Amino acid sequence: MTDTNQDQLMSDSVLSQREDPGVLSMMLNNRAIFWGGSLLLLFALIAIFGPLFTADPAALNPIKRLKPPSVEIWFGSDFLGRDIFARVIYGGRISLVVGIAVAVIAVIIGLFLGLVAGYVRALDAVIMRVMDGLMSIPAILLAIALISLSGATLSTVVIAIVIPEIPRVVRLVRAVVLTVREEPYVEAAIAAGTRLPLIMVRHILPNTIAPLIVQATYVCASAMLTESILGFLGAGIPPEIPSWGNIMSEGRTYFQISPWIIFFPGIALALTVLAVNIVGDGLRDTLDPRIARKM
Amino acid sequence: MSEGKAKPVLEINGLTVRLPEGADREFAIEDVTLSVSEGEIVCIVGESGSGKSVTAFTVMGLIPKKDLTPVAGEVLLQGEDLLKKTDRQMRAMRGENMAMVFQEPMTALNPVMRVGDQIAELLEIHTNMSGTARKKRVIDAMKDVSLPDPNKMYLSYPHQLSGGQRQRIMIAMALALEPRLLIADEPTTALDVTTQAEVLELIKDIQRRHGMGVMFITHDFGVVADIADRVVVMQNGKIVEQGTRDEIIAAPKHPYTKMLIGSVPSLTPPAHSHPETDDAALKTHGLNMVYGRHGFLQKGRLVHAAQDVELVVRRGETLGVVGESGSGKSTVARCIVRLIDPTSGDIDIEGVNIATMPERELRAFRQQIQIVFQDPYRSLNPRRTVGQSIVEGPMNYGLGADEARVRAEELMRVVGLAPEALDRFPHQFSGGQRQRVCIARALAMEPKVLIADEAVSALDVSVQAQVLRLLRDVRERYDLAMLFITHDLRVAAQICDRIMVMQHGVVVEEGRTEEVYANPQHPYTQSLLAAAPGRDVDFAQLV
Q1: Which residue numbers delimit the ABC transmembrane type-1 domain (chain A) (predicted)?
Q2: Contact A110, A169 (CB under 8 A)
Q3: Could you tell me the fold of the domain covering A28-59+77-294?
Q4: pLDDT for res B395
């Protein structure tokens, strides 16, 4: 190699500086993430701080039973005279907590199992067949079974929803691992004597983050819906704690004379799930354009 | 072949195509003027990014209009300006007046449709032929490209055919409507060298018989020497030189053309003054790799990727392993690095057999064998700086962060890159620079054996020459034993002291490079050497 060649190469490498815009600014520039995220943030703030300013969601007021929405009671009252507005806001806590808890737990467990299944050939078949088994269990049925065994608490509901969600995460992570493990840079790391745990954390795990965040939003949205369905069926959160599902369930009998009991929690649920899904779509478009095209 | 009086099929005058904003230059191609006459083959040659494909796609009207906009010039096909045509008119012209053959026939064909039907579809769209007439025409077209047993092949799916057969189908498809202009975009780059020779011969033959004009895009001067009547050399979107084949190849005027032609490795091995030593760094004995196994329920299909491979690489020498795709040459390399576990046999590194060593013990030996891969874009983790990639190995073996950094800086200088570039990410480097980084990463382990698995195959010819020079330098500097895996006989001739030719997993010939090239013994070696494009021209001698 001559010196001129070397100088040229060196200046070349200095010239070819190309900065990527930051991931954060890219996300904020995405309209879906911005609006969906704002809506979700608003709901979260209302759910966290709202109950401090509203009436007691459990306070009975038999005189004001089944009142339609008015300036005084915004969302009307139910058959025991409880304030629907206060109940819907309080129910938001349950939905968000269940959604987020299920997403986080399912992702953590699924990520671990997916990494193992994708990389350790011997365990792949075992883990995946167990996952196939889990996938065949209907979430609602499992929840009803679990709740009748150990009682209706928030944690039972979360566990019941987490279990059928795990296989979806495992499959996704495994698929990513299977493609990345064949990359020459992973093979180069093996040839360089990097130990397996470090290869996982350093070279393979980072590739799963983007699709996982996207998947987590979908898991979150579907968990909120499942929680509401369970509440509606009377198999979810106990009736003394208001959740969107059980508010709607209690309003079902009065649907024809006072539809607002079902209408407002229904709207709240629909808007929240929509906001989560919009954020998910936006994240998918910015974080992982490749997967976006596949879906 | 090119006579002044022949009627031009295609004339491109002052064509300029603008790139989207934020690209590294303003125009994809600028002021391109060329013509293709009836009965001549015009080769457009250039390295990646030269704009040769954009030119072809502009003629075909296949450029994405949103990103690439023709801003000046005209493209006249038989006197009609294609840039003024509507999409509907262009659709009618594609196939009937001009047709294109792509680089990768597997992706250009629909995998779930019989190949015969795919050709017939073209006739169905453009003509009013009856079903039987169409089928007859398709069979004729398939006969025309010398496909064996066209009646049976009509019913085949793309995956049932070989790469060469698929490319013949593509050519038959392009010719079905007898266009006056055929555009071939690197049509033989994805093919093995013997198949490449056949397909080139076919294109020449068909062009002669049908008297059409062919615009042939390639990066390979060997191919140019074999096929071109006239040559157009492009660099950074501009034409730097054009002329007849003999003018360009024998007497290039522009420095860039001279550099390109001078970079083509000669098929004649240089005289090696390599001392024979007995200091074997790497030895294999009876190395076997069998894929597939008898399944629990079904009878397994066994593939012998490597059979009884015996090789010796001594310190300071390069052993070349040459073969076409599927010959097992990469399998041998991957076994030796122990990325895959060989089925049986010995791999001796400095006298220790590592072939069946469990990973725990193997770790101590991994350091001694390092590998450089083919694809510079995938061999570096895109999320880590090149510095982090280089120090990863040495730090695995207990080198402190500061010492590793010092070693990395030194190696960056060795491979001809600025040490300050260690903190950059791979996407900030060009392909050749990345390959240099990969070499530095391998050297950081202070190996005794360096394996280059098609390490220069993905690079442009000028960059290829530089990386080859670098590989030769580091081999001497560190007294490495090098195993050089390649399909390219020209490259092998230049860098290898000894050559091993593989076919279907078996070593068919082995010997000193000069002897093998001068006097090949095995018929397969002979056919490989005979098929090397441009074998009649010794490029390096010309400049």
Answers
A1: 96-280
A2: yes
A3: MetI-like fold (1.10.3720)
A4: 94
